[in-house]
Amino acid sequence: MDVTFQFDWQAAFASIPHLLPGIPYTLLISFVGLAIGFIIGIIFGLLRISPVSWLRIPAITYIEIFRGTPVLVQVLFIFYGLPQLLGGPINALVAGIAAIAVNSGAYISEIVRGGVQSIDRGQKEAGLSLGLSRRQTFRYIIWPQAFRRMIPALGNQGIISIKDTSLFSVIGVGELVRQGQVYIATTFTALEVYLMVAMLYLAITLSLSLVLRIIERKGLAGQ
Questions:
Q1: CA–CA dist 149, 155 (Å, integer)
Q2: Cβ–Cβ < 8 Å for 90, 100
Q3: What dihedral angle (degrees, nearest 10) is formed by the CA atoms of 59, 103, 71, 193?
Q4: I want to staple 175 with a disulfide (CB 3.0 to 4.6 A). Which of 26, 62, 88, 222 is the partner?
Q5: Which of 179, 173, 203 is nearest to 17 (CA)?
Q6: Spatial distance between the Cα atoms of 189 and 63, rounded to a whole number of angstroms
Q7: Cβ–Cβ contacts within 10 Å for residue 109, how many?
Q8: DSSP character for 168?
Q9: Is the pTM of this model over 0.70?
Q10: How far, in Å, CA of 175 to CA of 169, rounded?
Q11: Which domains occur in the chain, in start order?
Q12: Residues 34-69: pLDDT tens digits?
Protein backbone atom coordinates (compact mmCIF):
# COMPACT_ATOMS: atom_id res chain seq x y z
CA MET A 1 0.00 0.00 0.00
CA ASP A 2 1.41 3.36 -1.05
CA VAL A 3 1.19 5.80 1.84
CA THR A 4 2.25 9.40 1.25
CA PHE A 5 2.64 12.14 3.77
CA GLN A 6 2.70 15.86 3.13
CA PHE A 7 4.01 18.20 5.79
CA ASP A 8 1.35 20.76 6.68
CA TRP A 9 3.08 24.10 7.21
CA GLN A 10 -0.23 25.81 7.92
CA ALA A 11 -0.88 23.42 10.82
CA ALA A 12 2.66 23.99 12.06
CA PHE A 13 2.32 27.77 12.18
CA ALA A 14 -1.21 27.50 13.57
CA SER A 15 0.20 25.67 16.60
CA ILE A 16 2.49 28.53 17.63
CA PRO A 17 -0.14 30.56 19.55
CA HIS A 18 -0.99 27.42 21.51
CA LEU A 19 2.67 26.77 22.33
CA LEU A 20 3.61 30.29 23.40
CA PRO A 21 1.97 30.02 26.87
CA GLY A 22 4.57 27.36 27.65
CA ILE A 23 7.51 29.73 27.18
CA PRO A 24 7.03 31.63 30.49
CA TYR A 25 6.97 28.33 32.39
CA THR A 26 10.10 27.14 30.59
CA LEU A 27 11.96 30.36 31.34
CA LEU A 28 10.68 30.59 34.92
CA ILE A 29 11.77 27.06 35.78
CA SER A 30 15.12 27.52 34.03
CA PHE A 31 16.17 30.89 35.40
CA VAL A 32 14.86 30.51 38.95
CA GLY A 33 16.29 26.99 39.14
CA LEU A 34 19.63 28.17 37.75
CA ALA A 35 19.77 31.13 40.14
CA ILE A 36 19.29 28.79 43.09
CA GLY A 37 21.65 26.27 41.51
CA PHE A 38 24.33 28.95 41.17
CA ILE A 39 24.15 29.68 44.90
CA ILE A 40 24.28 25.95 45.65
CA GLY A 41 27.16 25.59 43.22
CA ILE A 42 29.24 28.30 44.85
CA ILE A 43 28.70 26.84 48.33
CA PHE A 44 29.40 23.21 47.42
CA GLY A 45 32.13 24.11 44.94
CA LEU A 46 34.08 25.88 47.67
CA LEU A 47 33.35 23.10 50.16
CA ARG A 48 34.61 20.65 47.53
CA ILE A 49 38.09 22.17 47.71
CA SER A 50 38.08 22.68 51.48
CA PRO A 51 41.03 21.12 53.31
CA VAL A 52 38.58 20.11 56.05
CA SER A 53 37.39 16.57 55.30
CA TRP A 54 34.06 16.83 57.15
CA LEU A 55 33.15 19.73 54.85
CA ARG A 56 34.62 18.25 51.69
CA ILE A 57 33.11 14.76 51.90
CA PRO A 58 29.41 15.85 52.06
CA ALA A 59 30.04 18.19 49.12
CA ILE A 60 31.57 15.39 47.07
CA THR A 61 28.66 13.10 47.99
CA TYR A 62 26.07 15.66 46.86
CA ILE A 63 27.91 16.37 43.60
CA GLU A 64 28.35 12.72 42.67
CA ILE A 65 24.74 11.79 43.46
CA PHE A 66 23.15 14.56 41.40
CA ARG A 67 25.64 14.36 38.56
CA GLY A 68 25.32 10.59 38.44
CA THR A 69 21.51 10.35 38.24
CA PRO A 70 19.20 11.59 35.44
CA VAL A 71 17.33 14.83 35.99
CA LEU A 72 14.11 13.00 35.03
CA VAL A 73 14.57 10.58 37.93
CA GLN A 74 15.32 13.51 40.23
CA VAL A 75 12.14 15.41 39.34
CA LEU A 76 10.05 12.24 39.68
CA PHE A 77 11.55 11.61 43.11
CA ILE A 78 10.86 15.20 44.17
CA PHE A 79 7.30 15.25 42.83
CA TYR A 80 6.16 11.73 43.75
CA GLY A 81 8.61 10.56 46.40
CA LEU A 82 9.11 13.56 48.69
CA PRO A 83 5.37 14.03 49.38
CA GLN A 84 5.40 10.63 51.08
CA LEU A 85 8.15 11.85 53.38
CA LEU A 86 6.70 15.33 53.90
CA GLY A 87 3.09 14.25 54.25
CA GLY A 88 1.77 16.63 51.60
CA PRO A 89 1.81 17.23 47.84
CA ILE A 90 4.43 19.33 46.07
CA ASN A 91 3.42 21.75 43.33
CA ALA A 92 4.63 20.59 39.90
CA LEU A 93 6.21 23.96 39.13
CA VAL A 94 8.07 23.93 42.45
CA ALA A 95 9.24 20.38 41.78
CA GLY A 96 10.58 21.43 38.37
CA ILE A 97 12.46 24.40 39.82
CA ALA A 98 13.87 22.23 42.61
CA ALA A 99 15.07 19.61 40.13
CA ILE A 100 16.86 22.19 37.99
CA ALA A 101 18.34 23.78 41.12
CA VAL A 102 19.83 20.63 42.63
CA ASN A 103 20.92 19.20 39.28
CA SER A 104 22.53 22.37 37.93
CA GLY A 105 23.97 23.07 41.39
CA ALA A 106 25.96 19.84 41.24
CA TYR A 107 27.44 20.70 37.84
CA ILE A 108 28.06 24.32 38.77
CA SER A 109 29.90 23.12 41.88
CA GLU A 110 32.44 21.44 39.63
CA ILE A 111 32.62 24.53 37.41
CA VAL A 112 33.35 26.66 40.47
CA ARG A 113 35.94 24.20 41.73
CA GLY A 114 37.69 24.12 38.37
CA GLY A 115 37.58 27.89 38.00
CA VAL A 116 39.05 28.60 41.43
CA GLN A 117 41.73 25.93 41.13
CA SER A 118 42.74 27.25 37.70
CA ILE A 119 44.04 30.49 39.24
CA ASP A 120 47.77 30.40 39.78
CA ARG A 121 48.79 29.97 43.43
CA GLY A 122 51.03 33.00 43.07
CA GLN A 123 47.92 35.20 42.91
CA LYS A 124 46.98 34.14 46.42
CA GLU A 125 50.51 34.64 47.68
CA ALA A 126 50.63 38.10 46.10
CA GLY A 127 47.42 39.12 47.84
CA LEU A 128 48.67 37.91 51.21
CA SER A 129 51.97 39.71 50.70
CA LEU A 130 50.05 42.95 50.15
CA GLY A 131 48.51 42.61 53.60
CA LEU A 132 45.12 41.27 52.51
CA SER A 133 43.44 38.60 54.58
CA ARG A 134 42.68 35.22 53.01
CA ARG A 135 39.03 36.22 52.62
CA GLN A 136 39.93 39.54 51.00
CA THR A 137 42.43 37.83 48.71
CA PHE A 138 39.76 35.42 47.56
CA ARG A 139 37.10 38.11 47.15
CA TYR A 140 39.15 40.73 45.32
CA ILE A 141 41.81 38.69 43.49
CA ILE A 142 40.92 35.01 43.09
CA TRP A 143 37.14 35.10 42.55
CA PRO A 144 36.97 37.83 39.85
CA GLN A 145 39.53 36.00 37.72
CA ALA A 146 37.96 32.59 38.34
CA PHE A 147 34.47 33.85 37.49
CA ARG A 148 35.59 35.17 34.11
CA ARG A 149 36.92 31.72 33.30
CA MET A 150 33.67 30.10 34.43
CA ILE A 151 31.42 32.12 32.10
CA PRO A 152 31.55 29.76 29.06
CA ALA A 153 30.91 26.67 31.19
CA LEU A 154 28.12 28.41 33.13
CA GLY A 155 26.53 29.40 29.82
CA ASN A 156 26.63 25.82 28.60
CA GLN A 157 25.02 24.64 31.84
CA GLY A 158 22.29 27.24 31.41
CA ILE A 159 21.48 25.94 27.93
CA ILE A 160 21.44 22.35 29.17
CA SER A 161 19.06 23.27 32.00
CA ILE A 162 16.68 25.04 29.61
CA LYS A 163 16.51 21.90 27.47
CA ASP A 164 16.04 19.74 30.58
CA THR A 165 12.74 21.48 31.28
CA SER A 166 11.27 19.54 28.34
CA LEU A 167 11.30 16.46 30.59
CA PHE A 168 8.97 18.03 33.13
CA SER A 169 5.88 17.44 31.01
CA VAL A 170 5.76 14.05 32.76
CA ILE A 171 4.62 15.76 35.97
CA GLY A 172 2.20 18.10 34.21
CA VAL A 173 4.21 21.33 34.16
CA GLY A 174 2.76 23.52 31.42
CA GLU A 175 6.05 24.17 29.60
CA LEU A 176 6.58 23.97 25.83
CA VAL A 177 6.46 20.19 25.42
CA ARG A 178 3.37 19.88 27.61
CA GLN A 179 1.58 22.58 25.64
CA GLY A 180 2.49 20.73 22.47
CA GLN A 181 1.16 17.44 23.82
CA VAL A 182 -2.16 19.04 24.75
CA TYR A 183 -2.50 20.60 21.30
CA ILE A 184 -1.55 17.37 19.50
CA ALA A 185 -4.26 15.48 21.41
CA THR A 186 -6.91 17.51 19.58
CA THR A 187 -5.29 18.09 16.19
CA PHE A 188 -3.21 14.92 15.60
CA THR A 189 -0.44 16.96 13.98
CA ALA A 190 2.50 15.60 16.00
CA LEU A 191 5.23 16.16 13.39
CA GLU A 192 4.30 19.77 12.76
CA VAL A 193 3.80 20.66 16.43
CA TYR A 194 6.99 19.05 17.68
CA LEU A 195 8.93 20.79 14.92
CA MET A 196 7.62 24.12 16.20
CA VAL A 197 8.45 23.11 19.78
CA ALA A 198 12.00 22.38 18.66
CA MET A 199 12.21 25.72 16.83
CA LEU A 200 11.05 27.62 19.92
CA TYR A 201 13.62 25.86 22.10
CA LEU A 202 16.25 26.66 19.49
CA ALA A 203 15.24 30.33 19.47
CA ILE A 204 15.55 30.49 23.27
CA THR A 205 18.95 28.76 23.42
CA LEU A 206 20.39 30.75 20.51
CA SER A 207 19.28 34.00 22.16
CA LEU A 208 20.92 32.94 25.41
CA SER A 209 24.09 31.95 23.54
CA LEU A 210 24.24 35.39 21.93
CA VAL A 211 23.86 37.14 25.28
CA LEU A 212 26.52 34.92 26.83
CA ARG A 213 28.97 35.64 24.01
CA ILE A 214 28.50 39.37 24.58
CA ILE A 215 29.04 38.94 28.33
CA GLU A 216 32.08 36.77 27.70
CA ARG A 217 33.65 39.31 25.35
CA LYS A 218 33.08 42.12 27.82
CA GLY A 219 34.45 39.96 30.63
CA LEU A 220 37.60 39.19 28.68
CA ALA A 221 37.95 42.83 27.69
CA GLY A 222 37.88 43.76 31.37
CA GLN A 223 40.87 41.58 32.22
A1: 11
A2: no
A3: -170
A4: 26
A5: 179
A6: 41
A7: 27
A8: G
A9: yes
A10: 7
A11: 18-218 (1.10.3720.10)
A12: 999 999 999 999 999 988 888 899 999 999 999 999
